[in-house]
Write a structure and sequence with these properties.
Layout: H1 10-20, H2 39-45, H3 47-52, H4 69-81, E1 85-89, H5 92-102, E2 110-114, H6 119-128, E3 131-135, E4 139-140, E5 145-146, H7 151-160, E6 166-170, E7 177-178, H8 181-190, E8 195-198, E9 222-225, H9 227-230, E10 238-242, H10 249-259, H11 266-302, E11 308-309, E12 322-323, E13 327-331, H12 339-350, E14 356-357, E15 361-365, H13 372-388, H14 412-417, E16 420-424, E17 437-440, E18 444-447, H15 455-466, E19 470-472, E20 481-485
Parallel strand pairs: 2-3, 2-6, 6-8, 8-9
Antiparallel strand pairs: 1-10, 4-5, 7-12, 9-10, 11-13, 13-15, 14-15, 16-20, 17-18, 17-19
Helix pairs in contact: 1-11, 4-11, 5-6, 5-10, 7-8, 11-13, 12-13
Bound molecules: pyridoxal-5'-phosphate (PLP).
Length: 487
């Protein structure tokens, strides 16, 4: 058997060949390689995108049951990451997380998850009917951000819930902070359970020694990665890896058949194949440069009065063992403005878009496409931001004590399908919430679907509202009313 070389991109090459051969297309999609697309569509999107936008035709395999070039590309992907099996995803990392939940827990079964689980994990829990058992992440109150979870808290959850079927955690966080996955894997495996990781923000960890070790290298059983977030594939393209036997691969493949589209985009899949090829071939050099640029940005920020940022020294605290140095979190707290104000200023005064902002911080992702000029431009803009804002009183976060996690009366799935009532917030006391309510900072939900609305929770929401904090989740954005289960 001839093994395909890791430097090749068999799927992307097959797609390009199909376009080059100018095959007469009596198949979907309707634009037939662009000839049917409007002049506006061609002008805006470019003809090449249409030429390459094909579907599962003869010789191009089937994402849901791959036996040809997709399988070959997925095998190369697995080899690149040291996984036993890897799967292309065309519905984002979200679909990978949903697949991991559906692939490991069923209705009424328990899964241990972080309280600040991503929205797609909530969807996965609703789809599967599982009962979430929450582990609260650590919080840095100074910086106003949630960190990872500690092995001690995972162990507590494992002891309290001996029937749990799986553990699904996030590492790294959006801000690049990683948890002690090796220690957690040992605890989880002691009970014969799989440890699954939302590694949406860590696919590059496998290609540079100055980045934290990847989840698969720490004994984790499966992880979903946002190739499009950090590497150079197209938005919405992601992948999923499995290692070892604790995750049933047959079941996982079947689940992917349930949740992925039957019309997988070959543009997305080709971009995944090429992103893997690029990392294997040039990843180390690309990431060396990326890390240098991020360090230059970090050092420049440190020279600006009123701004602070952090490096690896940040990670000597609970829930933070290492840091992805390509992420640069800048606190603008010392300028007396919010992160959101800084984001708008950078966008509209300087044409610079940040990744995210919160009460105190703006987050910059330095990536393979970042240039020296970009970093210099950003530093100049930040210097101006500093000049224009003399320090005012620093606003303190009033989230020292989040209300205790309330009683879970029914599963999120039962809450999702229950008949609804929308009631004034004050009248929601004792009712079962159908919604998630998350206050920022620190971005940890105080209420999840299926949980009892306690007086402490109402009080906390009122306090956060009065003090102008951002609250996300409920249909009523102003949170005067809450959707609860009808009595
Ligand atoms: C931690 C985390 N997990 C999962 C996701 C979902 O990824 P995707 O947008 O690729 O579906 C995100 C998206 O931002 C995320 O931040």
């Amino acid at each position: 058997m001839v093994m395909t070389d890791l430097g090749q991109a068999p799927l992307a090459e097959a797609v390009a060949r199909y376009a080059k051969d100018k095959v007469t297309r009596f198949h979907m999609p309707g634009h037939k390689g662009g000839t049917g697309a409007s002049p506006e569509a061609l002008a805006i999107l470019g003809r090449r995108a249409f030429e390459l936008d094909i579907t599962g035709v003869e010789g191009l395999d089937d994402l849901l049951q791959p036996t040809g070039v997709i399988r070959e590309a997925e095998e190369l992907l697995a080899r690149a990451f040291g996984a036993d099996a890897s799967y292309f995803l065309i519905n984002g990392t979200s679909s990978g997380l949903q697949a991991l939940i559906l692939g490991t827990v069923g209705p009424g079964e328990e899964i241990i998850v972080p309280r600040n689980m991503h929205k797609s994990m909530v969807s996965g829990v609703i789809l599967s009917g599982a009962r979430p058992v929450f582990v609260t992440p650590e919080v840095d109150r100074e910086q106003g951000i949630a960190l990872g979870v500690t092995p001690e808290k995972v162990e507590e959850a494992l002891v309290a819930h001996p029937k749990a079927k799986a553990v699904l955690l996030i590492s790294p966080t959006y801000y690049g902070v990683t948890s002690d996955l090796a220690a957690i894997a040992a605890l989880v495996h002691k009970r014969g359970l799989p440890l699954l990781i939302d590694e949406a923000h860590g696919p590059h960890f496998y290609f540079h020694e100055d980045l934290p070790p990847g989840a698969l290298r720490q004994g984790v059983d499966a992880c979903a990665q946002g190739a499009h977030k950090i590497l150079c594939s197209l938005t919405q393209s992601s992948w999923l890896h499995v290692k070892g036997e604790r995750v049933d691969r047959g079941r996982l493949r079947a689940v992917l058949g349930v949740i992925l589209s039957t019309s997988a985009s070959y543009l997305l899949m080709a971009s995944l194949d090429l992103a893997r090829q690029q990392m294997v071939r040039d990843g180390r050099a690309i990431l060396t440069r990326t890390l240098e640029l991020a360090e230059r940005l970090r050092n420049g920020v440190r020279r600006l009065p009123g701004l602070t940022t952090f490096g690896r020294e940040y990670c000597s605290r609970a829930g933070a063992v290492d840091l992805d140095l390509t992420k640069v979190t800048v606190s603008v707290k010392g300028l007396g403005i919010t992160g959101q104000q800084a984001e708008l200023y950078l966008r509209y005064e300087h044409g610079i878009q940040v990744e995210l902002s919160d009460l105190y911080n703006v987050l910059f992702i330095v990536g393979p496409g970042t240039t020296e000029e970009d970093v210099e431009r950003l530093l100049k803009a930040l210097a101006e931001l500093v000049r224009e804002n003399t320090a005012r009183a620093v606003r303190q976060i009033g989230v020292d004590a989040l209300p205790p996690i309330p009683r879970q009366v029914i599963t999120p799935r039962e809450a999702f399908f229950a008949p609804a009532d929308t009631v004034p917030l004050v009248a929601a006391k004792g009712r079962i919430s159908m919604e998630t309510v998350t206050c920022y900072p620190p971005g940890i939900p105080i209420l999840c679907p299926g949980e009892e609305v306690t007086p402490e929770i109402i009080e906390h929401i009122e306090f956060m509202k009065e003090n102008g904090y951002r609250i996300q989740g409920p249909q009523d954005g102003g949170l005067t009313r809450l959707r609860v289960v009808k009595e």
